[in-house]
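DNA 3'-5' helicase (Rippkaea orientalis), 509 aa
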Amino acid sequence: MPRPSKLKYDRGTLILHPPPRGKAWIELATWDDRIEKFRIPAIHYRRLIETLQTHDILFIDEAKEFICLDLTPNFQRTPYPHQEEALTAWKQQNRQGVVVLPTAAGKTYLAQLAMESTPRTCLIVVPTLDLMHQWYAQIMAAFPDMEVGLLGGGSRDRTPILIATYNSAAIHAETLGNQYALLIFDECHHLPSDFFRVIAEYAIAPYRLGLTATPERADGSHGDLEVLIGPVVYRKGVKELSGNTLANHEIVQIKVKLSEQERQKYDQAIAIRNDFLRKSNISLGSLNGWQLFVQASARSPAGRRAMLAHREAKEIASGTDGKLRVLTDLICEHHNDSILIFTNDNATVYRISQDFLIPAITHQTIVKERHDILTKFREGIYKTLVTSHVLNEGVDVPDVKVAIILSGTGSAREYIQRLGRILRKGTGHNKLAILYEVVAEDTTEERTSQRRRGEELTPIDYPKKVSDQPRQLELLTSDLTDEIYNISSKKFPKAAESLDGNYDVSGDA
């Protein structure tokens, strides 16, 4: 009788030796001349095990180091119907897949339910330190008798339940890969990036759950989520959950006019940009129009002048004084409500913070200060908070009723995340949340607003090619201004400045 093959984990791969009989498993393997053994990518662990078992191939599994856990929750509440439906759909897909739910729809509690029904060692991956500590508090409250650890922000724990940032999990992917049977990816749209995807690729975890409000990525790599985690198994949007799970909400768009001086400068800048685009036969509405514009702007003084004109036009539109006047009116109107103000850049955050005496949070805010500000905001000591992008993900403030977007990108994900900040029902009854979107009239901001809200775009007047779907225009960051391009160096303020399956994952040899 031939000796059984041994399956071992080795830094993100599996080694199967001696080679078993049959060819069913060979398509997963690659011969490694350096060690004269077959290697299999760790992500194929489950498929390999099922293949070997199906063909009655004898083997010894020394790869897995995950174990069973006694996950008895400290508290239980009746799940919302959509949470039960999502959990069932995930189980029916062999506990591999992505659940798409809007912010504030209870994705964290859904993950807790998945952990209870899959009681094995678990790695939870999150994008920010704020979210890491938020998940830590939730899981500790749910399973107080279980050892829960952190990886990131100076912590390097190795515990049966581990909560890690994407950065830290990617750095340690080779050593984490065989420790956990269940992987939970919060905001899983981050995973398909070149750096983060190794978290999934180097892991043998047979059970995987992805959570996100917007899985789509601009680079198209969201299709890789099916390989890294599993298919989308359940999806519901804001409209379907509003009024029941989420707070009722209203979206109000306020258009402001540019002043006469602002309009004159804006039109001049747009004319310079559009003239260059026409002569270069570049359409910003085409799939690669922006990349072509960036490349062309680096090749000639005229191109550089057009790019600077484009940036100046954007700054005028996003920084019109009319937005500050509207902001003043909205703060006065909602003086009894908690308010979140979003802008597209830090300079505007600090300007509003200084002019209105409002606490500000940016990526430059140190952790302790951020924690102190958010705590006082949740407790109602601070009624208003201004931020740029850092609170799109990871802030839990249930009683916020009003959000004001003074400027932003055309990203639908950013828009949904900002709306999600005010959709939690909170402690009051019949909460009505309001999202104000302040847009400069007759400027490119109107098209940016259409893009992020998913509205059908109307054709633009330039250039002649308008057949391709427009894409978001992202500005290059540069402080360079040269008088030879005839662009004024005077800066306008920015934006108002028992498990399913046929094999054992218990950890027993």
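Residues 342 and 480 are 26 Å apart (CA to CA). Confidence is low (pLDDT under 50) at residues 456-509. ok done for today
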